[in-house]
Amino acid sequence: MSGVRVLVGTRKGAFVLTSDGKRERWEISDPHFAGWEIYHLKGSPADPNRLYASQCSGWFGQIIQRSNDGGKTWETGGNAFVYDGVPGTHQWYDGTPHPWEFKRVWHLEPSLTDPDTVYAGVEDAALFRSIDGGQTWQELSGLRGHGSGASWQPGAGGLGLHTIVLDPSDPKRIFIAISAAGAFRTEDGGTTWRPINRGLKSEGIPNPTAEVGHCVHRIAMHRSRPRVLFMQKHWDVMRSDDAGESWQEVSGNLPTDFGFPIDVHAHEPDTIYVVPIKSDSEHYPPEGKLRVYRSRTGGHEWEALTKGLPQHDCYVNVLRDAMALDSLDSCGVYFGTTGGQVYASVDGGDSWAPIVRDLPPVLSVEVQTLP
Amino acid sequence: MIRVELPAHLRTLARVDREVTLDVAGEATLRAILDALEARYPMLRGTIRDHVTRERRPFLRFFACEEDFSHEPPDAPLPEAVARGVEPFLIVGAMAGG
């Protein structure tokens, strides 16, 4: 019988939540890497037992962990993330030059076809790749070096490369996003890159329509339509129908268009999900009501999904990597909160229930659909 | 034989007990001890010293014989009691809490 494995990264460890295809009863693992920040963990689409995890600590720095048995046991990988050449500077918050310094891995994106190939998005923003199962890492330095790197500046959470989207139809095309530089695309497997931010408008930067400088929070794609991208920006929900060449706002009737995650239904490429957050200065849901919003029209028209979610006195946040969907026939939707809850919907968002409600603050949620 | 005490998170990472013992070739210095420690426990590389600069991570301290060696040059000799294994070399996470 099919099942799901939900991989949860938190401020104080990782948790593996498993269930059968009904998704009614869940087993919650003990904490893995207890006491460490787990920014992200994700399984290989090519081998679901191969997992990668980013483990970090202000004291001890970055660790990469790898599992070959679906998270039962782990082994440490390589943690030397060394920028190519002389790293140079990016802009600091006040616009002054600041040296590029590696801080942590925000996001790990395993290859769609090779379990030993995995990409790492790091702070300060850069993209690394390993082709030996996470033992050694090489920077794809054409991204930082394409020309605008010296002008990138950090978002409130740091200068993080947090989104890596691999095109299933073209192994040489990759989309990435950086806070607060924007979205970028390569067509040659990571050697050369260019910004893809036309149509974005951002207050708080000198030129609101600049080529770079936008605080993109997340980009999502449906496998069947790799040229259609959805974006949750710092403010604004956006859509591109031409692989990022241009973007149009699709915020429509959302109560607020600030938020972090955005994701796409497994079987309906025009059904997308966001979690509106009140503002960039008040990181919790409007009116204390935790509501996922779903559009079945690829944006513009949104409906609030509230059944089973707290509708009063709720002041949690849902971070950019903390939403994921399974691919069972009745698509499951999952998200985690900074209050330690992981909610699941087994009916595409119509109704919700907590899988677990007292974890440390949730940083990331990924789900694997198992045969 | 040099005795090294690790902080709890690094003991878990290296899968060792509180204290490890190391054979250090030559004089007992910060660099020699850390080189030997990382050679025996490769998973600790980058967790005590920066991969590139080889400098101590800022939230770690090095203590021995009730003295702070955190800011000593990496090739300065450590006390004889550390070199002979009478006293442990302590790698300590900077105090934090509320």
Please render the helix and strand layout as text:
The complex is a heterodimer of chains A (371) and B (98).
Chain A: E1 3-10, E2 13-20, E3 27-28, E4 37-44, E5 47-57, E6 61-67, E7 75-76, E8 89-91, E9 97-99, E10 104-110, E11 118-123, E12 126-130, E13 138-139, E14 160-166, E15 174-179, E16 182-186, E17 194-195, E18 216-221, E19 229-233, E20 237-240, E21 248-249, E22 258-264, E23 272-277, E24 292-295, E25 303-305, E26 323-325, E27 333-336, E28 342-345, E29 353-356, E30 362-370
Antiparallel strand pairs in A: 1-2, 1-30, 2-3, 4-5, 5-6, 6-7, 8-9, 10-11, 11-12, 12-13, 14-15, 15-16, 16-17, 18-19, 19-20, 20-21, 22-23, 23-24, 24-25, 26-27, 27-28, 28-29
Chain B: E1 2-5, H1 8-14, E2 19-22, H2 30-40, E3 60-64, E4 67-68, H3 80-83, E5 89-93
Parallel strand pairs in B: 1-5
Antiparallel strand pairs in B: 1-2, 3-4, 3-5
Question: What does it look like?
Answer:
- The complex is a heterodimer of chains A (371) and B (98).
- Chain A has 371 residues and is mainly beta.
- Helices cover 0% and strands 41% of the residues of chain A.
- Chain A has strands spanning 3-10, 13-20, 27-28, 37-44, 47-57, 61-67, 75-76, 89-91, 97-99, 104-110, 118-123, 126-130, 138-139, 160-166, 174-179, 182-186, 194-195, 216-221, 229-233, 237-240, 248-249, 258-264, 272-277, 292-295, 303-305, 323-325, 333-336, 342-345, 353-356, 362-370.
- In chain A, the strands form eight sheets. In chain A, strands 3-2-1-30 form a four-stranded antiparallel β-sheet, with no helix packed on it. In chain A, strands 4-5-6-7 form a four-stranded antiparallel β-sheet, with no helix packed on it. In chain A, strands 10-11-12-13 form a four-stranded antiparallel β-sheet, with no helix packed on it.
- Chain B has 98 residues and is an alpha+beta fold.
- Chain B has one domain (2-93): Roll (Ubiquitin-like (UB roll)), CATH 3.10.20.
- Helix content of chain B is 22%, strand content 20%.
- Chain B is built from three helices and five strands.
- Chain B has helices at residues 8-14, 30-40, 80-83, and strands spanning 2-5, 19-22, 60-64, 67-68, 89-93.
- Chain B has a five-stranded mixed β-sheet, with helices on one face.
- In chain B, a hairpin with a 2-residue loop joins strand 3 (60-64) and strand 4.
- The model of chain B has no long low-confidence stretch (mean pLDDT 94).
- At the A-B interface, strand 6 of A face helix 1 of B.
